[in-house]
Amino acid sequence: MALEYPSDLKYLDSHEYVRVEGETATIGISAFAVDQLGDIVFVELPDVDDTLEKGETFGTVESVKAVEDMYAPVSGTVIEQNSTVVDAPETIVEDPYGAGWLLKIKLSNPDEANEALSADEYRAKVEGE
């Protein structure tokens, strides 16, 4: 199965993605990460109003294979947590770029997203691994 890497997203080497819309960023994990993890059984996310700094750990995703830290692709304040994925972590596996998003944050520095990888750069990196 070919994995998708939507071109409207930016990606980190650590497999998080960010979608920037105005001052809001939606953060999740890529289809590649989901494919590597397998069945996701638990997600730990920061609370609304928590502040994230780019590059810092913001939570964990646990699968039957491993527990992985997730890293903030941008800095900002959490304005929404996806309660669906907390209650039903398999949503991330089923739709990582849609219903399986993790957080929405209000950006403190919108330019940070430009430092992440484009879809083509990310695809080349993960498919070349």
TrEMBL record:
Organism of derivation: Dactylococcopsis salina (strain PCC 8305)
Highest rank taxon of the organism: Bacteria
NCBIfam families listed in its UniProt record: gcvH (TIGR00527), PRK01202.1 (NF002270)
Any one GO CC term of the record: cytosol
Database matches in SUPFAM superfamilies: Single hybrid motif
Organism lineage: Bacteria, Bacillati, Cyanobacteriota, Cyanophyceae, Nodosilineales
Cofactor(s) required for function per UniProt: (R)-lipoate
Protein's name according to its UniProt entry: Glycine cleavage system H protein
Keywords: Lipoyl
Family note: Belongs to the GcvH family.
UniProt cofactor note: Binds 1 lipoyl cofactor covalently.
Any single biological process term in GO: protein lipoylation
Function noted in UniProt: The glycine cleavage system catalyzes the degradation of glycine. The H protein shuttles the methylamine group of glycine from the P protein to the T protein.
Pfam family, one: GCV_H
InterPro entries per record: 2-oxoA_DH_lipoyl-BS, Biotin_lipoyl, GCV_H, GCV_H/Fam206, GCV_H_sub, Single_hybrid_motif
Subunit: The glycine cleavage system is composed of four proteins: P, T, L and H.
Keyword Oxidoreductase annotated: no
N6-lipoyllysine PTM positions: 65
Keyword Acyltransferase attached: no
Residue span, Lipoyl-binding domain: 24-106
